[in-house]
């Protein structure tokens, strides 16, 4: 498996565990992290032995934001001209699910990266926030759009305008995270959850991910129609026949990914 300067990547069965590894900077996201992360996710997506990924940091920080030191001297021409950090949208193009396992700080770009994943599992010490306003800037990796969709306008607006952090309990109550897990169990729980997903029929996993994500991009009528078309389409797969036969015959299904 490839080595990355800023990530640790290991495979645990059908699960790819990607760990952000710049602890000296609280995993601040710089251009190297972006390049490494995209390469790792592309390799994961292309690897047929892998069904689900977990993206995590360390106990103190998932990621404390984009790297302020890398950005501090930039001007409009270089930021706009290079579409600075525009590549992060590639994370959302990953077709297999990616779970964010967040402990400690998920701030600014860190919170935005977690929200680009398919769902977030939070350790009890997780803290989410969009503190860019304190630096006299704004979110730049989707936070102003994904946070309101996750927690509603009132909380998102308050967080963006004041920079205050939200703890794990508030984040769960508000719909930002799927579940809270004790810190010591976070990664194991996330890998176990990812394993459950990775053992499902691969085409059904991709289709479920695609249709839930479509809910944030379209009207209800178009979204329901999109769902029905994919639902009908999946009846063309071998795994659908196998899955339903296995249920009727009271045995586990065996998937081929076809
Ligand atoms: N960038 C660079 N370095 C960082 C960052 C960061 N975001 N966060 C922490 N570090 C570094 C610190 O500078 C420090 O380094 P050093 O030891 O060399 O001084 C080290 O990590 C440890 O940090 P602290 O000493 O500050 O640790 P504390 O425990 O005292 O505080 C905090 C932890 C509260 C998380 C604090 O570090 C902090 O406030 N960090 C900045 C949080 C922040 O403002 N994040 C938003 C950044 S802007 C952003 O993410 C925009 C995203 C969109 C970009 C897309 C552009 C298109």
UniProtKB/TrEMBL annotation:
<dbReference type="Pfam" id="PF00378">
    <property type="entry name" value="ECH_1"/>
</dbReference>
<comment type="function">
    <text>Could possibly oxidize fatty acids using specific components.</text>
</comment>
<dbReference type="InterPro" id="IPR001753">
    <property type="entry name" value="Enoyl-CoA_hydra/iso"/>
</dbReference>
<dbReference type="GO" id="GO:0004300">
    <property type="term" value="F:enoyl-CoA hydratase activity"/>
</dbReference>
<dbReference type="InterPro" id="IPR018376">
    <property type="entry name" value="Enoyl-CoA_hyd/isom_CS"/>
</dbReference>
<dbReference type="InterPro" id="IPR014748">
    <property type="entry name" value="Enoyl-CoA_hydra_C"/>
</dbReference>
<keyword id="KW-0456">Lyase</keyword>
<protein>
    <recommendedName>
        <fullName>enoyl-CoA hydratase</fullName>
        <ecNumber>4.2.1.17</ecNumber>
    </recommendedName>
</protein>
<keyword id="KW-0443">Lipid metabolism</keyword>
<keyword id="KW-0276">Fatty acid metabolism</keyword>
<dbReference type="GO" id="GO:0006635">
    <property type="term" value="P:fatty acid beta-oxidation"/>
</dbReference>
<comment type="similarity">
    <text>Belongs to the enoyl-CoA hydratase/isomerase family.</text>
</comment>
<dbReference type="InterPro" id="IPR029045">
    <property type="entry name" value="ClpP/crotonase-like_dom_sf"/>
</dbReference>
């Amino acid at each position: 498996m490839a080595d990355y300067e800023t990530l640790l990547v290991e495979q645990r069965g059908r699960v790819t565990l990607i760990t952000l590894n710049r602890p000296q900077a609280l995993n601040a996201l710089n251009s190297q992290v972006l390049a490494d992360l995209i390469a790792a996710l592309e390799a994961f997506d292309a690897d047929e032995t892998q069904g689900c990924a977990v993206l995590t940091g360390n106990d103190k920080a998932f990621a404390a934001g984009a790297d302020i030191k890398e950005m501090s001297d930039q001007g409009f021409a270089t930021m706009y001209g290079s579409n600075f950090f525009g590549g992060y949208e590639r994370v959302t193009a990953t077709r297999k699910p990616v779970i964010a396992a967040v402990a400690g700080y998920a701030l600014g770009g860190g919170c935005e990266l977690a929200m680009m994943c398919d769902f977030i599992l939070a350790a009890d010490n997780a803290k989410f926030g969009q503190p860019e306003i304190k630096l006299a800037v704004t979110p730049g990796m989707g936070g102003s759009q994904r946070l309101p969709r996750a927690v509603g306008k009132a909380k998102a607006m308050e967080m963006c305008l004041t920079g205050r952090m939200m703890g794990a309990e508030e984040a769960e109550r508000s719909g930002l995270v799927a579940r809270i897990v004790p810190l010591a169990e976070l990664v194991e729980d996330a890998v176990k959850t990812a394993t459950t997903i990775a053992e499902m029929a691969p085409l059904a996993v991709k289709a479920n991910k695609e249709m839930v994500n479509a809910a944030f991009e379209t009207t209800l009528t178009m979204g329901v129609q999109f769902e029905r078309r994919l639902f009908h389409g999946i009846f063309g797969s071998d795994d659908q026949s196998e899955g339903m036969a296995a249920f009727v015959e009271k045995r586990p299904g065996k998937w081929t990914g076809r």
